[in-house]
Amino acid sequence: MPQKNDREYRNIAGNLAPQEDEKRVTGYATTFGVPYKLYGSNSYEIWEVIDKYAFDKTDMEDVIMQYDHEGRVFARTRNNTLALRSDEHGLLIDADLSGTELGRQLYEEIKGGYTDKMSFGFTVRGDKWEDEMIDGVQKSTRTITDIGKLYDVSAVSIPANDSTSLSVRNLTDGAIERLKAERLERERVEALEARRAALRERINNG
């Protein structure tokens, strides 16, 4: 999947569904308030969640629908073949794929269950991080509060692993380095306090 380095991409499983009239499909480009894991190890976990208000000020002037994020356009908001709206569940898309032969083929693939997953490309304008320690594992959760621009929604054949895409890899690498630094600092402070406590005990017993 060709991906732009200045954008982030996320994959959503099992959302596209065919509608019988006009070869339309509907589905959710993303869901709100549902955390998903970007990275996990024995020491660190990076999670992400989309806030329900994240699309309130998003630039969606000309969003396109593609397949595997490639150049062919099957629907777009500018010619009213693609509609987008937020509801309580997420960002809902409604696409008319009847305008091109390839679009009609994609509709048949979705109808037959060969393609039912989505991905979307976007930039982030606002987010916040929360850290917590759970059973010895440092968990950091990124809440995306403001999506600056939505570039495309895409039907995908085999979604790329989020952790292997460039933008997410850069994001998680930075978060992991921060968590490592925080853990090292915490261990340094704990070791210093232990040495001080041991010194006080020796003095008191001396």
Topology overview:
Layout: E1 8-12, E2 17-19, E3 24-31, E4 36-40, E5 44-50, E6 64-67, E7 75-76, E8 82-86, E9 90-96, H1 101-111, E10 117-134, E11 137-156, H2 166-205
Parallel strand pairs: 5-11, 6-11
Antiparallel strand pairs: 1-10, 2-3, 3-9, 4-5, 6-7, 8-9, 10-11
Description:
With 206 residues, the chain is α+β, with helices and mostly antiparallel strands. The chain has one domain (8-205). Helix content is 25%, strand content 41%. It has two helices and eleven strands, in the order βββββββββαββα. Strands 1, 4, 5, 6, 7, 10 and 11 form a seven-stranded mixed sheet that branches. A four-stranded antiparallel sheet has the order 2-3-9-8, covered by helices on one side. The longest helix is centred in the last third of the chain and has 40 residues, at 166-205. The chain starts with 7 loop residues before the first strand and ends with a helix. Mean pLDDT is 83; it is low at 161-167.
Question: Key terms for this structure?
Answer:
seven-stranded mixed beta sheet; 206 residues
At a glance:
With 206 residues, the chain is of the alpha+beta class. Helix content is 25%, strand content 41%.
Could you give the count of β-strands? Answer: 11
Uncertain runs are: 161-167
Label the structural class. alpha+beta
Question: What is the residue-mean pLDDT, rounded to a whole number?
Answer: 83
First-residue to last-residue Cα separation: 70 Å
| Overall radius of gyration | 23 Å
Measured as a percent range, the helix fraction is 10-25%
DSSP summary: helix tally: 2
User: How many distinct domains?
Assistant: 1
Strand content: 35-45%
